[in-house]
């Protein structure tokens, strides 16, 4: 499968497994899962047929491992805007984590800290390179350093998605080092 088809399928999955399952008439369970055969049937019925082999390639070959398949069901590992409980355990974060953003948000972030915006959590990266890529989606990236160890010591809860994205409810401004 060529890269363009792979990206198209991945975006199609993101749309329906994270944001708008109703659009193709599927229902995610409380933890975000939907049976693979139901997803494939719904996609075909809505004019976007995907073969099981293609789905497998997108799930396995995806650089970010955005999707997980387990027991015949599939879900997005993070990034939802529809209410789902990913049921991830709280884990102790490393001393520092990173957040990639862009200059135009920095003033607001200085005042309010990091907020989840349209997602369920603030997304944090384990390394500067990943955060730079996340920021670069929107323009010239700015990487903020998050004092995750200190936040955790102060009682903030951290979780890690199946694909290694760190999730927090908020990051108050006092825990941010902004360049
Ligand atoms: C910014 C992609 C103003 C925040 C990536 C970000 C990631 C504020 C934007 C994942 C703010 C929200 C998530 C505040 C935060 N005032 N702006 N107080 N607090 N922001 O897309 O972190 O391809 O919801 O800096 O790789 O950019 O979808 O979050 O710029 O892992 O798998 O508000 O999405 O993964 O944007 O990206 P997003 P994000 P996927």
UniProtKB/TrEMBL annotation:
Biological process, per Gene Ontology: tRNA splicing, via endonucleolytic cleavage and ligation
Keywords, ordered alphabetically: NAD, Transferase
Manganese found in the keyword field: no
Enzyme class, spelled out: transferase
EC number in record: 2.7.1.-
Family membership: Belongs to the KptA/TPT1 family.
Protein's name according to its UniProt entry: Probable RNA 2'-phosphotransferase
Organism listed in the record: Nonomuraea polychroma
């Amino acid at each position: 499968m060529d890269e363009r088809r792979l990206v198209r399928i991945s975006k199609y999955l993101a749309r329906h497994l994270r944001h708008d399952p109703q659009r193709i008439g599927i229902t995610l369970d409380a933890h975000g899962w939907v049976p693979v055969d139901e997803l494939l049937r719904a996609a075909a019925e809505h004019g976007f047929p995907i073969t099981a082999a293609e789905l497998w390639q997108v799930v396995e070959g995806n650089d970010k491992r955005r999707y997980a398949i387990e027991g015949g069901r599939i879900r997005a590992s993070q990034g939802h805007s529809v209410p789902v409980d990913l049921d991830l355990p709280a884990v102790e974060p490393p001393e520092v984590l990173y957040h990639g953003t862009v200059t135009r948000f920095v003033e607001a972030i200085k005042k309010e800290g990091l907020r989840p915006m349209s997602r369920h959590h603030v997304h944090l990266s384990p390394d500067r390179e990943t955060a730079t890529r996340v920021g670069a989606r929107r323009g010239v990236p700015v990487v903020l350093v998050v004092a995750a160890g200190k936040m955790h010591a102060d009682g903030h809860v951290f979780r890690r998605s199946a694909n290694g994205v760190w999730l927090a409810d908020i990051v108050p401004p006092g825990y941010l080092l902004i360049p």
